[in-house]
Protein backbone atom coordinates (compact mmCIF):
# COMPACT_ATOMS: atom_id res chain seq x y z
CA UNK A 1 0.00 0.00 0.00
CA UNK A 2 2.82 2.37 0.90
CA UNK A 3 4.51 1.66 -2.42
CA UNK A 4 1.26 2.36 -4.28
CA UNK A 5 0.81 5.68 -2.49
CA UNK A 6 4.39 6.64 -3.26
CA UNK A 7 3.92 5.87 -6.96
CA UNK A 8 0.69 7.85 -7.00
CA UNK A 9 2.41 10.82 -5.41
CA UNK A 10 5.25 10.64 -7.92
CA UNK A 11 2.81 10.52 -10.83
CA UNK A 12 0.87 13.48 -9.44
CA UNK A 13 4.10 15.40 -9.13
CA UNK A 14 4.94 14.56 -12.70
CA UNK A 15 1.73 15.75 -14.25
CA UNK A 16 1.41 18.85 -12.11
CA UNK A 17 5.01 19.81 -12.79
CA UNK A 18 4.46 19.54 -16.51
CA UNK A 19 1.33 21.66 -16.24
CA UNK A 20 3.13 24.56 -14.53
CA UNK A 21 0.72 24.32 -11.62
CA UNK A 22 1.24 25.54 -8.06
CA UNK A 23 3.14 22.43 -7.03
CA UNK A 24 5.64 22.88 -9.85
CA UNK A 25 6.02 26.58 -9.13
CA UNK A 26 6.97 25.73 -5.56
CA UNK A 27 9.51 23.16 -6.76
CA UNK A 28 11.39 24.34 -9.86
CA UNK A 29 13.35 21.07 -9.87
CA UNK A 30 10.26 18.86 -10.08
CA UNK A 31 10.74 17.84 -13.73
CA UNK A 32 14.40 17.04 -13.16
CA UNK A 33 13.59 14.89 -10.14
CA UNK A 34 10.90 13.00 -12.04
CA UNK A 35 13.19 12.19 -14.95
CA UNK A 36 16.42 11.68 -13.00
CA UNK A 37 15.02 9.83 -9.98
CA UNK A 38 12.07 7.97 -11.50
CA UNK A 39 12.01 7.55 -15.27
CA UNK A 40 15.70 6.94 -15.99
CA UNK A 41 16.20 4.42 -13.14
CA UNK A 42 13.06 2.55 -14.23
CA UNK A 43 14.29 2.39 -17.82
CA UNK A 44 17.72 1.22 -16.71
CA UNK A 45 16.31 -1.40 -14.36
CA UNK A 46 13.58 -3.01 -16.45
CA UNK A 47 13.37 -1.29 -19.82
CA UNK A 48 10.18 0.55 -18.90
CA UNK A 49 9.95 4.35 -18.57
CA UNK A 50 8.10 4.48 -15.24
CA UNK A 51 5.81 7.52 -15.04
CA UNK A 52 7.23 8.84 -18.31
CA UNK A 53 5.84 7.91 -21.70
CA UNK A 54 9.28 7.13 -23.10
CA UNK A 55 12.94 7.27 -22.11
CA UNK A 56 15.68 7.15 -24.73
CA UNK A 57 18.95 6.57 -22.92
CA UNK A 58 20.98 6.69 -26.12
CA UNK A 59 19.64 10.04 -27.26
CA UNK A 60 19.38 11.33 -23.67
CA UNK A 61 15.80 12.45 -23.44
CA UNK A 62 12.50 11.49 -21.84
CA UNK A 63 8.92 12.15 -22.95
CA UNK A 64 6.39 13.01 -20.25
CA UNK A 65 2.62 13.52 -20.63
CA UNK A 66 1.60 16.96 -19.39
CA UNK A 67 -1.45 17.35 -17.17
CA UNK A 68 -2.68 20.30 -19.25
CA UNK A 69 -4.83 19.07 -22.14
CA UNK A 70 -5.29 15.62 -23.58
CA UNK A 71 -2.54 15.87 -26.17
CA UNK A 72 0.34 17.85 -24.69
CA UNK A 73 3.70 16.16 -24.09
CA UNK A 74 7.09 17.41 -22.91
CA UNK A 75 10.54 16.42 -24.12
CA UNK A 76 12.97 16.62 -21.18
CA UNK A 77 16.72 15.94 -21.36
CA UNK A 78 18.03 13.18 -19.13
CA UNK A 79 21.09 15.41 -18.60
CA UNK A 80 20.93 18.36 -16.24
CA UNK A 81 20.20 21.30 -18.57
CA UNK A 82 18.51 24.32 -16.99
CA UNK A 83 16.88 25.79 -20.08
CA UNK A 84 17.21 27.95 -23.18
CA UNK A 85 19.98 30.03 -21.59
CA UNK A 86 22.26 27.04 -20.97
CA UNK A 87 25.50 26.95 -23.03
CA UNK A 88 25.11 23.16 -23.13
CA UNK A 89 22.40 23.38 -25.81
CA UNK A 90 24.92 25.01 -28.19
CA UNK A 91 27.76 22.55 -27.58
CA UNK A 92 29.00 20.70 -30.68
CA UNK A 93 27.93 17.37 -29.17
CA UNK A 94 24.57 18.57 -27.84
CA UNK A 95 21.66 16.21 -28.54
CA UNK A 96 19.25 17.22 -31.31
CA UNK A 97 16.42 17.95 -28.91
CA UNK A 98 14.25 19.63 -31.56
CA UNK A 99 14.61 16.66 -33.92
CA UNK A 100 13.73 14.27 -31.12
CA UNK A 101 10.76 16.41 -30.06
CA UNK A 102 9.52 16.53 -33.66
CA UNK A 103 9.91 12.77 -34.00
CA UNK A 104 7.81 12.39 -30.83
CA UNK A 105 4.80 14.22 -32.28
CA UNK A 106 3.11 10.87 -32.93
CA UNK A 107 2.16 10.84 -29.24
CA UNK A 108 -0.02 13.88 -29.94
CA UNK A 109 -1.64 12.08 -32.88
CA UNK A 110 -2.28 9.02 -30.75
CA UNK A 111 -3.99 11.05 -28.03
CA UNK A 112 -5.97 13.05 -30.61
CA UNK A 113 -6.96 9.80 -32.34
CA UNK A 114 -6.17 11.35 -35.73
CA UNK A 115 -3.02 11.91 -37.77
CA UNK A 116 -2.70 15.66 -37.93
CA UNK A 117 -0.96 17.44 -40.82
CA UNK A 118 2.55 18.43 -39.78
CA UNK A 119 1.74 22.14 -39.86
CA UNK A 120 -0.91 21.61 -37.18
CA UNK A 121 1.60 20.42 -34.57
CA UNK A 122 3.99 22.78 -32.83
CA UNK A 123 7.03 22.59 -30.57
CA UNK A 124 7.73 25.36 -28.07
CA UNK A 125 10.20 26.43 -25.40
CA UNK A 126 9.73 29.34 -22.99
CA UNK A 127 12.26 31.95 -21.99
CA UNK A 128 13.98 31.68 -18.62
CA UNK A 129 11.58 34.27 -17.21
CA UNK A 130 8.36 32.64 -18.41
CA UNK A 131 8.83 29.12 -17.11
CA UNK A 132 8.25 27.39 -13.79
CA UNK A 133 10.91 24.69 -14.13
CA UNK A 134 14.70 24.82 -14.15
CA UNK A 135 15.04 21.81 -16.39
CA UNK A 136 14.85 22.30 -20.15
CA UNK A 137 11.58 21.05 -21.62
CA UNK A 138 10.06 21.41 -25.07
CA UNK A 139 6.27 21.45 -25.32
CA UNK A 140 4.74 19.26 -28.05
CA UNK A 141 1.09 19.80 -28.90
CA UNK A 142 -1.59 20.87 -31.37
CA UNK A 143 -1.58 24.39 -32.74
CA UNK A 144 -4.31 26.99 -32.79
CA UNK A 145 -6.11 27.13 -36.13
CA UNK A 146 -5.56 30.88 -36.51
CA UNK A 147 -1.83 30.44 -35.96
CA UNK A 148 -1.70 27.74 -38.65
CA UNK A 149 -3.42 30.20 -41.01
CA UNK A 150 -1.13 33.10 -40.04
CA UNK A 151 2.00 31.05 -40.74
CA UNK A 152 0.76 29.53 -44.01
CA UNK A 153 2.14 32.36 -46.22
CA UNK A 154 5.66 31.58 -45.00
CA UNK A 155 5.59 28.12 -46.57
CA UNK A 156 7.38 29.41 -49.68
CA UNK A 157 9.55 32.11 -48.16
CA UNK A 158 13.26 32.29 -48.98
CA UNK A 159 15.30 29.92 -46.88
CA UNK A 160 17.44 31.05 -43.94
CA UNK A 161 16.12 34.60 -43.74
CA UNK A 162 14.10 36.15 -40.94
CA UNK A 163 10.74 37.69 -41.82
CA UNK A 164 8.46 39.59 -39.38
CA UNK A 165 5.07 38.26 -38.32
CA UNK A 166 2.54 39.42 -35.73
CA UNK A 167 0.89 36.69 -33.70
CA UNK A 168 -1.46 37.49 -30.81
CA UNK A 169 -0.60 41.18 -31.31
CA UNK A 170 3.01 40.43 -30.44
CA UNK A 171 6.08 40.68 -32.62
CA UNK A 172 7.75 37.50 -33.82
CA UNK A 173 10.11 36.66 -36.64
CA UNK A 174 9.98 33.55 -38.84
CA UNK A 175 12.68 31.64 -40.73
CA UNK A 176 12.17 28.66 -43.03
CA UNK A 177 14.83 25.95 -42.86
CA UNK A 178 15.28 22.59 -44.57
CA UNK A 179 16.00 20.61 -41.39
CA UNK A 180 16.41 21.04 -37.63
CA UNK A 181 19.98 19.77 -37.29
CA UNK A 182 23.49 21.23 -37.13
CA UNK A 183 23.42 24.93 -38.07
CA UNK A 184 19.64 24.72 -38.56
CA UNK A 185 19.14 23.64 -34.97
CA UNK A 186 16.66 26.30 -33.73
CA UNK A 187 18.81 27.08 -30.69
CA UNK A 188 21.80 27.80 -32.93
CA UNK A 189 19.71 29.75 -35.45
CA UNK A 190 18.46 32.12 -32.75
CA UNK A 191 21.84 32.33 -30.98
CA UNK A 192 23.58 33.53 -34.16
CA UNK A 193 22.32 37.07 -33.63
CA UNK A 194 21.30 36.71 -29.99
CA UNK A 195 24.62 35.45 -28.56
CA UNK A 196 25.35 34.78 -24.92
CA UNK A 197 23.32 33.34 -22.05
CA UNK A 198 21.83 36.71 -21.09
CA UNK A 199 20.29 37.25 -24.52
CA UNK A 200 19.22 33.64 -24.95
CA UNK A 201 17.49 33.76 -21.56
CA UNK A 202 15.02 36.30 -23.04
CA UNK A 203 14.07 34.14 -26.05
CA UNK A 204 11.11 31.94 -26.81
CA UNK A 205 11.18 29.56 -29.79
CA UNK A 206 8.32 27.88 -31.65
CA UNK A 207 8.80 25.27 -34.40
CA UNK A 208 6.35 23.77 -36.86
CA UNK A 209 6.27 22.38 -40.38
CA UNK A 210 6.21 24.87 -43.24
CA UNK A 211 3.42 22.90 -44.91
CA UNK A 212 1.15 19.88 -44.35
CA UNK A 213 4.29 17.75 -44.69
CA UNK A 214 7.89 18.68 -44.03
CA UNK A 215 8.71 18.50 -47.74
CA UNK A 216 8.65 22.31 -47.64
CA UNK A 217 10.85 22.40 -44.55
CA UNK A 218 10.21 23.79 -41.09
CA UNK A 219 9.43 27.23 -39.68
CA UNK A 220 11.41 28.57 -36.74
CA UNK A 221 9.40 31.27 -34.96
CA UNK A 222 11.17 33.49 -32.43
CA UNK A 223 10.34 36.34 -30.08
CA UNK A 224 11.85 37.78 -26.90
CA UNK A 225 11.07 39.79 -23.83
CA UNK A 226 13.68 42.41 -24.67
CA UNK A 227 12.07 43.63 -27.91
CA UNK A 228 9.13 46.01 -28.28
CA UNK A 229 5.84 44.11 -28.18
CA UNK A 230 7.81 40.88 -27.96
CA UNK A 231 7.01 37.80 -25.94
CA UNK A 232 8.95 35.49 -23.67
CA UNK A 233 6.54 32.64 -24.25
CA UNK A 234 5.11 31.27 -27.49
CA UNK A 235 3.14 28.60 -25.63
CA UNK A 236 -0.18 30.46 -26.24
CA UNK A 237 0.28 29.63 -29.94
CA UNK A 238 -0.39 26.02 -28.99
CA UNK A 239 -3.90 24.76 -28.27
CA UNK A 240 -3.91 22.37 -25.34
CA UNK A 241 -7.57 21.59 -26.07
CA UNK A 242 -6.55 20.49 -29.58
CA UNK A 243 -9.69 21.88 -31.19
CA UNK A 244 -8.07 21.53 -34.61
CA UNK A 245 -8.32 17.73 -34.33
CA UNK A 246 -12.02 17.91 -33.48
CA UNK A 247 -12.73 20.17 -36.46
CA UNK A 248 -11.16 17.65 -38.82
UniProtKB/TrEMBL annotation:
InterPro entries: CDP-diacylglyc_Pase, HIT-like_sf
Signal peptide: 1-17
UniProt pathway: Lipid metabolism; Phospholipid metabolism; CDP-diacylglycerol degradation; phosphatidate from CDP-diacylglycerol: step 1/1
GO cellular component: plasma membrane
EC top class, as a word: hydrolase
Catalytic activity field: a CDP-1,2-diacyl-sn-glycerol + H2O = a 1,2-diacyl-sn-glycero-3-phosphate + CMP + 2 H(+)
Domain of life: Bacteria
Keywords: Cell membrane, Hydrolase, Lipid biosynthesis, Lipid metabolism, Membrane, Phospholipid biosynthesis, Phospholipid metabolism, Signal, Transmembrane, Transmembrane helix
Enzyme Commission code: 3.6.1.26
Keyword Chaperone on entry: no
Protein name: CDP-diacylglycerol pyrophosphatase
Species this chain originates from: Paraburkholderia solisilvae
Chain's gene name: cdh
Amino acid sequence: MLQFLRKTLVFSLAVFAGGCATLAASNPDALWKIVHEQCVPAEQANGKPGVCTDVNLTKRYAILKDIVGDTQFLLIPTDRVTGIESPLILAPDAPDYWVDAWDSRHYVDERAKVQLPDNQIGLEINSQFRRSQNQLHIHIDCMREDVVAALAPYRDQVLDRWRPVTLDKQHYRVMRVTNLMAQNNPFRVVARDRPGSDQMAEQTIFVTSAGPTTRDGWLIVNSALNIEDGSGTAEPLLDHACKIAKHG
